[in-house]
Amino acid sequence: MDNNLKKQKYELLTKQIAATLSGEDNIIAKMATISCLLKQEFSYYYWCGFYIVDENKENELVIGPYQGTLGCLRIPFGKGVCGAAAASLETQVVEDVHQIQNHIACDSASNSEIVVPVFKDDKLIAVFDVDSTELASFNKVDQEYLEQILNNSF
């Protein structure tokens, strides 16, 4: 997708998500809404959703609200792209997931991925994961806007 069109879509979505979530405190409701709105807007989003930090199992993510095919139920910190984002607290952009040694293939149709850490009160609460069936679907535009949306939503 052309970067200018991508930016326009993200600009509108950023405002739409903020307006929709205005006054909502429930984290699950926010996650479900963000996943839904983003997945509906971008055709290259094959799967998107949240893996939540499990309060009962240290250093483990558990599936949260998502849109798409069946996701992995649990992911340890440090394993795969989601686990790397959780462990490093940094966004991961992967052009070809098949080049990652410890990639977790929850769905074999996935070819590229972006994972953004989600914080509340400066504490990691989840990661937001987006997979695409196309190679190199995600770039700095996706990273910039997803970080902005997620940082302003929780």
Features:
single chain, 154 residues, alpha+beta, Beta-Lactamase, six-stranded antiparallel beta sheet, globular
What does this structure look like?
- It is a single chain.
- The protein is of the alpha+beta class.
- The chain has a single domain, classed as 2-Layer Sandwich (Beta-Lactamase).
- It is 37% helix and 26% strand.
- The protein contains 4 helices and 6 strands.
- The protein has a 6-stranded antiparallel sheet, sandwiched between helices.
- Strand 1 and strand 2 form a beta hairpin.
- Helix 1 runs parallel beside helix 4.
- The longest helix is centred in the N-terminal third of the chain and has 19 residues.
- It is globular, with a radius of gyration of 14 Å.
- It starts with a helix and ends with a helix.
- The mean pLDDT is 95.
Short description:
This protein has helices spanning 3-21, 27-41, 80-88, 140-153; strands at residues 47-53, 60-67, 74-76, 92-94, 112-120, 123-132. With 154 residues, the chain is α+β, with helices and mostly antiparallel strands. A 6-stranded antiparallel β-sheet has the order 3-2-1-6-5-4, with helices on both faces.
